[in-house]
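Contributing new records

If you add data, match the layout below exactly. Sequence lines come first and carry their own label; structure lines follow with theirs. Keep one chain per record. Anything else will be rejected by the validation script.
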Amino acid sequence: MVDESKIIFKARYNKPRRELSLPALIFHHVDHWMNVIGLEVFFAWLMIYTWCDRQQYPEEPQ
């Protein structure tokens, strides 16, 4: 019997920051979330998204 309640995260190789991207945003998303949570909180979320420490990810096996 398989326990399907477990969540497994698989880390990928570490990319340089210049190769990473933010989540796709369209004007509708930005307008909506700025109205719902406010401009400061929306931009704080974008800043926090970039703080992820990717140094712990293992190198991709060669």
